[in-house]
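Structure in, sequence out. Go:
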């Protein structure tokens, strides 16, 4: 599994679930129900104080695991056999999205 942080543009449903994304110039469509959870972050290393009652965004990261397929593939290029599984995070206060992880287990392999 690769872990890094890269900006992505995400389009969400009215309920706030990711539906599609633009990453590295390519468009992807979410093809399975996304899963959401929260992870603790080392806020004390980034903030001088955490105001009482301000957990989401200060103490926790909102993480979404999505499975995506390319929205369109060039003519002559076969469709991928498996979706790509990505972990995304949304910064609560700014609304900006970052790509955190690409799961290698589901990435197509070449010989």
């Amino acid at each position: 599994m690769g872990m890094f942080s890269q900006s992505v543009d995400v389009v969400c449903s009215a309920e706030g679930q990711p539906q599609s994304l633009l990453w590295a110039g390519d468009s992807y469509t979410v093809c399975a129900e996304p899963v959401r959870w929260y992870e603790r972050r080392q806020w004390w290393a980034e903030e001088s104080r955490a105001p009482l009652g301000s957990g989401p965004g200060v103490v926790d990261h909102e993480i979404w695991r999505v499975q995506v397929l390319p929205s369109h593939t060039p003519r002559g290029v076969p469709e991928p056999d498996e979706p790509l599984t990505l972990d995304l995070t949304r910064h609560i206060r700014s609304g900006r999205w970052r790509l955190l992880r690409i799961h290698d287990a589901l990435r197509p392999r070449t010989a």
